[in-house]
Design goal:
335 residues; 5-stranded mixed sheet; single chain; alpha+beta; 18 strands; 11 helices
Length: 335
């Protein structure tokens, strides 16, 4: 029976949920659900629900069930996981999958139990949890089985985590409960303050992706956006440049760098010397921000580099973690 059931690694993120099986990504959908308020029933999820964001009548509520990397709405998360498993394993519940799900480092036992319970209720046979930094390190093939220091930074949408790993375990780590979404919010606030224009979070995210950067760039790019005038309430266009976006995100980026700095400060000196030789691996969607590696290198004095598969490494690492379970078991969060 166990031969026929699937083994899945799931990266349950604030913005995206990805599932991997045997090192292959089999599903990638936004962590968004559309709920009919009166019936408390899910009518759409993933990309379909994402497109409804801010464009629905009051009878439907479009929510992100995870906030800052942890479950904020348990029922909706359970619906989402159920829909996800149904899509991957078919409607027949005969062969239940074995699942390893990532949770942010340092979450409370209540938060991690919520993930564990939701996955079991959604129809998994066995559920294991794995810390995101450990999962990402396995996914990018860092040599974490050796007694030398490897540093990894996960720049997620709702949480930023930095950790130093050795001997299949986390030596020191920190989690900052803000990430890519906070960068979007800082752009919204900046445009509102400077131009008196109200823009939506999706627009801010588009700005960040298209012209955003962490350090001033040689070539300035610009982009025209539409927003609502604060005074008249009517639509009005405005043009933003890369320099302005860099300025808008400055404070949030400083918090992210500080989190990494705190981890380096707490790391034993022997491991720090290894990290200086090997550099800091940047993973997560936030690692795709232009120049974030340069910013880290400049601020910390330790070379930072972008890994090959920044967005999918956590899910791939979780899938691979199932086969390494006997080795990493003692370092996984207990439920």
């Amino acid at each position: 029976m166990a031969l026929l059931s699937k083994e899945l690694g799931i990266d349950l993120g604030t913005i995206f949920t990805r599932a991997a099986e045997g090192g292959q990504i089999v599903l990638e959908e936004p962590t968004v659900a559309a709920i009919v308020v009166e019936e408390q029933k899910m009518v759409a999820w993933g990309q379909e629900a994402q497109e409804m964001f801010g464009r629905v009548p009051e009878s439907i509520e479009v929510t992100r069930p995870l906030q800052n990397g942890v479950i904020a709405d348990y029922e909706v998360t359970e619906y989402l996981l159920e829909a996800l498993l149904r899509r991957l394993c078919g409607p027949v519940r005969f062969f239940r999958p074995k699942v390893m799900i990532s949770v942010p480092y340092g979450v409370t036992s209540v938060e991690s139990r919520a993930v564990h319970e939701a996955a079991l209720q959604a129809g998994s046979r066995e559920v294991y949890l794995i810390q995101q930094p450990l999962s990402a390190a396995i996914g990018v093939d860092l040599p974490i089985g050796t007694p030398s220091g490897n540093m990894i930074v996960c720049l997620g949408g709702g949480a930023t985590q930095a950790g130093v790993l050795a001997m299949y375990g986390i030596v020191t780590a920190e989690t900052l409960r803000s990430g890519g979404l906070s960068l979007d919010e800082s752009i919204v606030a900046y445009v509102r303050k400077k131009y008196g224009l109200i823009i939506g979070k999706l627009t801010a995210e588009q700005v960040k992706l298209k012209i955003g950067a962490a350090v001033p760039q040689d070539e300035e790019q610009s982009m025209e956006i539409q927003g609502q005038d604060q005074v008249t309430g009517l639509p009005r266009p405005v043009t933003l440049t890369t320099g302005e976006v860099v300025e808008a995100m400055q404070d949030e980026l400083e918090d992210i760098v500080d989190t990494v700095r705190k981890v380096l400060e707490k790391t034993p000196p022997e491991l720090v010397s290894d990290i200086i030789d090997r550099g800091i691996a940047l993973t997560g969607g936030g690692a795709l921000l232009r120049g974030i590696d340069k910013l880290m290198t400049k601020e910390l004095g330790v070379p930072a580099y972008l890994v090959d598969n920044p967005t999918v490494c956590v899910a791939e690492g979780a899938a691979r973690g199932l086969s390494m379970y006997p080795i990493i078991r003692r370092n996984l969060p207990t439920v």
